[in-house]
Amino acid sequence: MRHLSLVIAMLSFMAISNISFAQTKRSQVVENGGTGKFKAEIVEDASLPTHMVYRPTDLKAAVNDAGKLPVILYANGGCANSSIEIRYFLNELASHGYVAVAIGPYEEDDFFAHWTDVMQNMYPENKTVVLANGTVVEKPTAEQVKARQEMIQKMIAQGSQQQNSKKSKKNQPAPPPVNVSSQPTNPLMLLDALDWLIKQNADKESEYYHMLDLSKVAVMGQSCGGVQAIGVAHDPRVSTCVVLNSGMGDMQMQGTTPAQLDNINVPMFYLIGGPTDIAYANAAKDFEKLQNIPVVMANTQDGHEGTYYEAHGGLYAEAVLSWLDWQLKGCLSECAPFVNERAAALMYPDWTFVRKNF
Q1: How confident is residue 131, by pLDDT bands cut at 50, 70 and 90?
Q2: Rounded to whole angstroms, how far apart are CA atoms 128 and 249?
Q3: What is the pTM of this model?
Q4: pLDDT of residue 153
Q5: What is the DSSP string of 82-114?
């Protein structure tokens, strides 16, 4: 009898540890679930411990109201294995009827408690910011501005040295490809999320069963995560690519090269923080290189950190939501700033837009 009990316990443990269908393990609500029609939550799913899910709390109600939900695959700044830095932004998108799966396991840490000083050094010197938690990030001091400028110049100089080194070695054998498996995250983790969503949508035991519109998939990333998004945007299952404070330029990173831009066949939206954004030059080169697909690039005055830490993701969340509603939900009323200069100037007076191939 005791032996039988041990066998049953072991089988139960094996079943739990090999969960294949979606099963919410823990969840949290931030910013009262967002401003959208469908209050959102952030979920740890037992069958996908490597990612966090941002979704409407009541999936069935959202689907009954708006139809099957498009999906977002998200990669983090710094290619980090955590999306906590961007959670207000993704939570806001989810509250408008999207399921977003971001690289990195579930976390409930207070991001602002650790990073306010860093954010002050990353924002443009002319900007005072009120964060989502109410903290006011004042304009940086002259010393902080000087230190940041020196840091940026150092990074630019290092980039120039790398380019000169490449030119001097162009007749030498090419280096081996980057071993992305040795990195904390890699672009293929975005496709892992998509594979999981496809499986859940088809599984009768899953809470996502027939809830997702898998013909409408956005791949998206910020900074290093934008490079990861570009690296998989050629996948035929992807409908659009959103690049935040990022761009390839002439660099190679995370196994992604500038040549991969030629393989992308879906509309792209670059949202960049202006000349103070370290990704500014790379994004401009990408825009010139992309010839055969619709592409829009908006430049703001927010620097490399955008407005992600402001309430509900700030204007960055608003603009990205408009792009997704247009591209994934067919809401033509949302396309105005992306196709019309006058509309863009009225809606985002401090931003500049360039567009082509529409």
Answers
A1: confident
A2: 30
A3: 0.84
A4: 63
A5: --GGGHHHHHHHHTTT-EEEEES------HHHH
